[in-house]
Amino acid sequence: MRALIAEYRGEHRRQAGPRPPPAPGEMRIASWNLHKCVGGDGRFDPARCVHVIGELGADLIALQEVDRRFGRRVGLMDVHMLERETGLVPLPVSDLPDGHGWHGNALLVRAGTRARLRRLALPGAEPRGAVIAELDLPAGPLRVVAAHFGLLPRCRRRQAEAILAAVVEGPGMPTLLAGDLNEWKAGPRSSLRALEQFFGTVAAGPPSFPARLPVLPLDRIMGWPQGLVSGVEVHDTPRARIASDHLPMTARLHLAEAAASLAEGREAA
């Protein structure tokens, strides 16, 4: 069994290495469940999480479990350290001045990014939510949905349907969905099948959980229209393996190409 797991791990897990610079109109994006800044060693270490976020080198990051779960849901990271080391700031989605997210979901962007925000309560047996942000970026507008789905399949199905309804009722623009969707199955048995009406086939991504020996693809990054997102992979470094129980996911976002494709479609119509 150990040999089979090691083989599976080797096929699906790549070490983070040097990355080519982004092309014009291209961005590096990421998603990561911080596990409330408690690492695989049981240590609460927000600074370590900030260092991993810095490793990602991303322009846009969806984070999950960024606030305290019980009591006053304050944010767990030092936002001044975060901006100083990464150039990123959380969008103001919390009800609290010292909170980072909504139901633990936060979006990190470059300082000064203009955004229209919506908080979406997701149905289910446990409190869950999503953040929807319409961003004004140099390459064009982008809708980002940052979400953390529930543990029960029937709840995830309802949550996928709620996300789909919220997206299709909005204006047509390139759309990104990123987060811990808690689903490892693909195909007809997947609880995420409702999303295929908009995002196309929802395939299983690279395994991201548990971080030390990932075998389950719980975390997803997907986009619309086709071609918006490419190169989805796990960020696998010694620090990332210990900082949380999930590995971060990264991808490339081709916003300029997607915006041009949508504009051509509108003209043809």
Structure summary:
With 269 residues, this protein is of the alpha+beta class.
Task: Describe the 3D structure.
The structure is a single chain. With 269 residues, the chain is an alpha+beta fold. It has a single domain, classed as Deoxyribonuclease I, Chain A (4-Layer Sandwich), CATH 3.60.10.10. It has 7 helices and 11 strands. The protein has helices at 2-12, 46-56, 79-86, 153-168, 196-199, 238-243, 255-268, and strands spanning 26-33, 60-64, 88-90, 106-110, 114-122, 128-137, 140-148, 175-180, 219-224, 229-234, 249-254. A 6-stranded mixed beta sheet has the order 3-4-2-1-11-10. Strands 5-6-7-8-9 form a 5-stranded mixed beta sheet. A hairpin with a 5-residue loop joins strand 5 and strand 6. Helix 2 runs parallel beside helix 3 (79-86). The protein is globular, with a radius of gyration of 18 Å.
CATH class: Alpha Beta
- Classified in CATH, the superfamily is Endonuclease/exonuclease/phosphatase
Rg from Cα = 18 Å
Provide the β-strand percentage band.
Answer: 25-35%
Report the end-to-end length measured between terminal Cα atoms: 55 Å
Largest beta sheet: strand ordering: 3-4-2-1-11-10
Number of helices: 7
Helix proportion range:
25-40%
CATH third-tier fold name? Deoxyribonuclease I, Chain A
The number of distinct β-strands equals: 11
**SSE string, helices as H and strands as E:** HEHEHEEEEEHEHEEHEH
Q: List low-pLDDT spans.
A: none
Number of domains: 1
Structural class category = alpha+beta
Second CATH tier, the architecture: 4-Layer Sandwich
Spatial shape: globular
Average pLDDT, rounded to a whole number, is 91
